[in-house]
Amino acid sequence: MKFSLLEYERPDYEALTNRLVALKKRMEAAASYEALRDAWLAVKREIEYAEYREEIAYIRHLCGIDYEASTREVELQNAEDPAIDALRDACSRLALASPFASRLEEEFGKQVFARMAEGAVGGESESLKLQTTEARLKTEYRRLMKSRDRDEEMLFDVFLRLIGTRRDLAAARGFASYVDLGYRLRDRRDYGREELSGFRERIRKTVVPALWELKKRGIGLKEFPAKPRKSGELIAAVRTMFSDLSGETGAYIEEMVRDEMFDLESRENKRPDLWTCCMLPCLRLPFVIGDYHGGGMETAAAVHEFGHGFAFRTAAQTQPLYEYHRSSPAVNEIHSKTMEHFMYPYLELFVDDRRRDFIRDHLLQELENLAYRCAVDEFEHSVYELPGLTRTQVCELWADISRKYRPWIGIGAEEIRSGKSWPRQTHVVEAPFYYIEYDIAQIGAWEFRLRMETDPREAWEDYLALCRAGGSRSFGELLAAAQLSDPFGEGTVERICGPAAEALCAVL
């Protein structure tokens, strides 16, 4: 069914709560594996269906469709979801403590138990209130960001209040720092602060000097138009690419086009320059959102998001649990970033005779983003661990960190004094500590790019295996299954980033 025909029905949160409470009691009273399993799976079905209904409203909110009504629904979700999540986590704790836990793990795999352990971080009343406040502030930030003439004072005020709320939330949940809670919520078990600090330092020593030399030569991103002038033409180009790439991607794109599971049109109340991919539980289909203006590099954003959707759809067809339809962002972004490189043989569809310009800007942008995201990640760590910063101090902090990773970007004293120098990166607000995971994934995507040059068939098969596995294994296990290197391993950054820089220099 086409997305436009899907009917939104607000979840009855009171009835949902009652059903979850009843299922929790069934789990507590379960005297057999079958009884526990049935109640546990029923909890998952309840949550999945509620998320499906909520996602319809959230997609409309992001797209600016029935904006006032859909925004009210999202605000209601922000108020109701923390209590629902707390009940879900309580059921997870019961499953973890059950005498039948080993049989659940045997049937569904150990990864779901690892995720339950990470997610079960408590749902006391003070914590629930703070989660509601956090969600409300995120919605307010999103509302301010959608305006091209946004109020910077209000934006920064919401940002600081959000940082403070998250610190309070960490304390309420018994964590010494929001960084610790943030890592827990990001499902990080294969790497931690030490690995990320080392990763950022390798980028600083390997990538930043190479970029600095290019900047000294006056080399920067160009602006050039795409061949598709309208969003419908862009969809047609994506359709041709995906149809030719493989049977799996061809079937996927036909389903997406048939059901109109995308919205790339610009409109009032749609957040400017937004590119994202939402997932619709129950239907097991993605929905791609974009804001297309005809720019050459925007076409890569479209392919990126359709790449996310392909990975989700592929996992949803093979994995038994909804939790396994996606992995951690550090893996999910490998799917989408690699798809951008699968795009190279089809560039004539997207940028006509500007293929060389596209590859030049694409590789340069990827390298620049490696440095920028490391700066943002270090800033995030610092801002959560240095309470009481004034606006000027926040700007000074950002300026100092930015100079480490992007010495070619000048931040003047007046910008700092006036409070204008701080990252307005949406990820910092929407999903703390997410942004660096694009960099981690970039290493895997570039490794796939290298393998495409030597054995494209094997590279595709490993890519498809990674998509099919979804989130059913840990980060390290998924990389191993796809024959990808550990991005935190000794020499990996240097070995993978070097050829990317050489490929860029070849098209300058």
Give structural notes:
The chain is mainly alpha-helical. The protein has a domain of 183 residues. It is built from 22 helices and three strands. β2 and β3 form a beta hairpin. The longest helix is centred in the first third of the chain and has 31 residues. The chain is globular, with a radius of gyration of 23 Å. The termini are far apart.
List the helices and strands and how they pair.
Blueprint: H1 13-29, H2 33-63, H3 67-97, H4 101-108, H5 111-119, H6 125-145, H7 152-172, H8 178-185, H9 193-216, H10 231-245, H11 247-258, E1 262-263, E2 276-280, E3 285-289, H12 298-318, H13 329-342, H14 347-351, H15 355-385, H16 391-405, H17 413-417, H18 426-430, H19 436-454, H20 456-469, H21 475-481, H22 492-506
Parallel strand pairs: 1-3
Antiparallel strand pairs: 2-3
Helix pairs in contact: 1-2, 1-3, 2-3, 3-5, 3-6, 6-7, 7-8, 9-15, 9-22, 10-11, 11-12, 12-13, 12-20, 13-19, 15-16, 15-19, 15-22, 19-20, 19-22
